[in-house]
Design a protein that fits this description.
- The chain is α+β, with helices and mostly antiparallel strands.
- The protein has two domains: 108 residues, no CATH class; 217 residues, no CATH class.
- It is built from 17 helices and eleven strands.
- The strands form four sheets. A five-stranded mixed beta sheet has the order 7-6-5-8-9, with helices on both faces.
- The radius of gyration is 24 Å and the shape is globular.
């Protein structure tokens, strides 16, 4: 059995008949949640195992358990002791510290089946197993536990997705686009499914879903199909900036469909790709040097740090350096946009944060059932997440970008300087 598969076991030798049903449910939910938290911590520790001290010991480690915490579920309160992590060193490396996504605040406050059901499905739980899983987490009082009702609900969501995919967008204008492809295993299909997602920022600074589409891979033709469908729905004006990873398919498609759009490569993806081409003993140093590039206050400073990185690693690790150097311009494009937006437009975190929980729950599992069901579930998760999205910081700058105001090193260029630049 896979070590990350959570099973609810009841010892047949125990006299469970004499136990109140609610107590059985609470104990089962406690076991499931406790195991899930342990898996989440293990995955987090694996991610940062390369961070070592002078003696070669890991800096990101377990640190006991927190005090007992009560989670409110349908069957009552469930008491758990979450594992703790000593991850203070991540601040030095400019990495986010650990925060559990297994029991997020919104899930503690409400029995939200609209979010829980897609998560369970994407984890690989079949329709017939939903009853046990939902009872264990939410208690007996939750509605719609039968397999028949689950199937009916999934059909309703599929119709919602089909209607949403045909909505009118001619009144919409999006300044920034984030694009990414999210891969899933599908039990009833031989190929891995790739869900292509585009999220945009409107003129008032609100983040919205633009497209959620099925694809077999992140190819040029797949992305062109998505972008052309968006155009058919009414979006004819190109975004000012598109943010994505290094997948050539997306950039080739954008170049053909919206040639006036500028390109910003995601620094998170680029950092991971570069570190993968370096020995673990140098990854910490390289990561710090990469941070010095994209956290530099000006493009000149960033280019200077870029040159230092090349000089440091080119002789012995040319593949890592080539991975950085070939995309230099598109990595530093964000300097031509408001500094207040840099945190948002340097990476594809707008999409990555939405799918962080999904990826955790599909890790090493048997995958989802069908392609259309997976697509529908992903759509419902994003749609639900959108309700909690905040507006982009300093939204007033959005209109300036849309109107063509020029920015240099994140600062608005005054008219006198524009004339000076034109004359030169």
């Amino acid at each position: 059995m896979n070590k990350n598969t959570v099973k609810l076991k009841i010892n047949p030798e125990e006299n469970i008949v004499n136990q109140p049903l609610d107590e059985i449910v609470r104990n089962g939910a406690k076991t499931m949640l406790q195991k899930a938290l342990e898996i989440e911590v293990d995955l987090f520790l694996e991610k940062y195992q390369y961070i070592l001290d002078d003696k070669g010991n890991r800096r990101v480690v377990r640190n006991g358990r927190s005090r007992a915490r009560k989670i409110v579920a349908g069957a009552g309160q469930i008491e758990i002791k979450a594992p703790r992590i000593d991850d203070r060193t991540l601040e030095i490396h400019h990495e986010p510290r650990f925060k559990s996504s297994i029991v997020p605040p919104y899930l503690r406050r409400t029995k939200n089946i609209d979010e829980l059901l897609p998560l369970l499905y994407l984890k690989g739980i079949s329709t017939g197993d939903f009853s046990e899983a939902l009872e264990s987490i939410l208690g007996k009082n939750v509605i719609g536990l039968s397999a028949q009702n689950i199937v009916r609900l999934k059909q309703v969501w599929q119709k919602e997705y089909e209607q949403w995919s045909k909505r009118e967008l001619s009144h919409k204008e999006y300044v920034y686009w984030w694009a990414d492809g999210v891969h899933f295993n599908v039990r009833l299909d031989n190929d891995r499914q790739c869900i292509l997602v585009i999220i945009g920022v409107t003129l008032d600074g609100q983040k919205e879903i633009i497209a959620v589409s099925d694809g077999f891979r992140e190819s040029k033709e797949s992305w062109k199909s998505v972008i052309r469908e968006v155009k058919r729905l009414g979006i004819t004006t190109a975004p000012k900036l598109a943010i994505g990873d290094g997948a050539l398919g997306f950039w080739a498609a954008v170049q053909e469909e919206f040639p006036e759009t500028n390109h910003q490569l995601c620094w998170v993806h680029k950092t991971a790709n570069v570190l993968d081409k370096l020995p673990k003993s140098l990854q910490g140093k390289a990561k710090t040097m990469i941070h010095d590039i994209y956290l530099a206050p000006t493009k000149v400073d960033a280019n200077n740090s870029f040159d230092v990185f090349i000089e440091e690693f080119e002789a012995k690790y040319p593949k890592a350096v080539d991975c950085m150097r070939k995309h230099r311009g598109r990595l530093l494009e964000f300097y031509n946009y408001p500094a207040e937006h840099w945190l948002n437009i340097r990476t594809t975190n707008a999409i990555e944060s939405v799918f962080a929980t999904v990826r955790l729950r599909t890790y090493r599992t048997k995958g989802c059932g069908s392609r259309i069901a997976t697509l529908t579930m992903v759509f419902k998760l994003i749609q639900s997440a959108q309700k909690r999205w905040n507006k982009i910081r300093f939204a007033q700058r959005i209109k300036q970008v849309w109107e063509g105001i020029i920015f240099e090193d994140g600062i608005e260029v005054q008219e006198s300087k524009i004339l000076e630049l034109v004359s030169v």
